[in-house]
């Protein structure tokens, strides 16, 4: 009788556990209706929503990560349009913004215990491998645009190597060698097996890492967040080495702390003097003020002219319309195709409808179109 009672108790416990797990999974479907889109973008099978470990993780961490998500958005509001633009321009899902969120909480000056730095938490060796300059008075890992471009290159390389985006994301966290070993030992690329807490094919940090990315993405995509409308886009401009960042902030009518926060790669209040020209990030709506008010010193004009011919030191904004091409836009504004590609960091000539372009133009053209406004 005692054995029968024990068996019945175990059966009921298993039944109610299974029922409650299934019920919680169904509630996740209703709470996060875009889960199939999120999972698809990371190449994760939709059935993972019903994985017991993932359900337990969501139940335990949902509230905490929702607060983390909200704090991160406030910090990153000026960076999000730029990050989204670079990801989409390279053909990647903009949901990889959530990888950066998990890495750094959108703190451009974030430093980990292992000395990884910036939005995308690059270690010095990896940074140098992907052409980010790291030295005493200049650390490009803090530069939001340069670091995002390097992260995209690295993630694409990992995706080509491992074949699925969730594998690329985890390899970004634990390293290529660790990921290869895990796949070899597990003899499968099934996510639920790779991050199983009992099998431990991957480090605990990486097992939690992928779950965090998926959960913050679910939280974010529940609101169908449009990163492009969340803040002002950024653009990089060139200034002379040794220039005061506080002087530039005053020139652009920006708060000192805002310009400094966008350019954490520079250690002090002045740009280094090692090079004649450095790049800084400014909001795109400050581009006119920059070209109207900032004048490159004469000893660096020859360097700047190689990058942007003197005729095209002014820029107009233009939204791409149906039927536009770089050639037709260049002809309309008496500009050059290569100048437009350089100003917008375009690798190719195809355009996206309604995309915002900066058109390098002469002073005469700039003044003519501004008078029309």
> Which shape, going by the Cα principal axes?
globular
Mean of pLDDT: 83
Distance between the termini: 90 Å
Task: Give the percentage of residues in beta strands.
Answer: 5-15%
Report the CATH topology name of the largest domain.
Lysozyme
Radius of gyration: 25 Å
Structural class by secondary-structure content = mainly alpha
Helicity range: 40-55%
Order of helices and strands: HHHHHHHHHHHEHHEHHEHHEH
**CATH architectural label of the largest domain:** Orthogonal Bundle
List low-confidence stretches. 10-20, 301-308
Query: How many strands, which pairing sense, and closed or not: the largest β-sheet?
Result: 2 strands, antiparallel
Reading off the top of the CATH hierarchy, the class of the largest domain is best stated as Mainly Alpha
Q: With helices defined by DSSP (H or I, 4 residues minimum), what is the helix count?
A: 18
Count of discrete structural domains:
3
Compute the number of strand runs: 4
**Strand order across the largest sheet:** 1-2
């Amino acid at each position: 009788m005692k054995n029968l009672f024990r068996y019945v108790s175990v059966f009921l416990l298993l039944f109610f556990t299974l029922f409650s797990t299934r019920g919680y999974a169904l509630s996740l479907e209703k709470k996060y209706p875009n889960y199939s889109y999120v999972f698809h973008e990371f190449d994760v099978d939709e059935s993972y929503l019903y994985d017991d470990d993932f359900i337990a993780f969501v139940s335990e961490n949902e509230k905490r990560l929702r607060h983390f998500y909200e704090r991160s958005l406030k910090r990153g509001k000026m960076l999000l349009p730029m990050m989204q633009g670079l990801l989409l321009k390279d053909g990647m899902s903009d949901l990889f913004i959530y990888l950066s969120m998990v890495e750094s909480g959108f703190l451009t000056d974030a430093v980990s215990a292992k000395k990884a730095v910036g939005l995308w938490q690059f270690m010095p060796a990896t940074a140098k491998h992907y052409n980010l300059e790291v030295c005493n008075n200049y650390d490009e890992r803090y530069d939001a645009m340069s670091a995002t471009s390097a992260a995209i290159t690295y993630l694409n390389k990992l995706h080509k190597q491992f074949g699925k985006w969730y594998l690329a994301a985890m390899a970004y966290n634990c390293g290529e060698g660790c990921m290869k070993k895990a796949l070899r030992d597990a003899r499968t690329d099934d996510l639920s097996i790779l991050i199983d807490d009992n099998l431990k094919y991957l480090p605990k940090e990486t097992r939690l890492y992928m779950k965090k990315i998926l959960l913050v993405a679910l939280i974010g995509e529940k609101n169908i967040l449009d990163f492009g409308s969340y803040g002002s886009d950024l653009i990089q401009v060139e200034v002379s080495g040794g220039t005061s960042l506080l002087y530039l902030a005053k020139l652009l009518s920006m708060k000192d702390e805002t310009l400094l926060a966008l350019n954490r790669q520079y250690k002090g209040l002045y740009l280094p003097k090692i090079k004649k020209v450095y790049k800084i990030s400014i909001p795109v709506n400050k581009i006119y003020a920059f070209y109207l008010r900032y004048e490159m010193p004469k000893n660096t004009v020859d360097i700047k002219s190689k990058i942007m011919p003197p005729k095209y030191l002014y820029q107009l904004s233009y939204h791409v319309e149906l039927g536009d091409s770089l050639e037709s836009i260049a002809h309309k504004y008496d500009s050059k195709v290569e100048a437009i590609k350089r100003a917008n960091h375009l690798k190719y000539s195809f355009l996206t409808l309604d995309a915002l372009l900066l058109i390098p133009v002469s002073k005469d053209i700039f003044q003519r179109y501004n008078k029309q406004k």
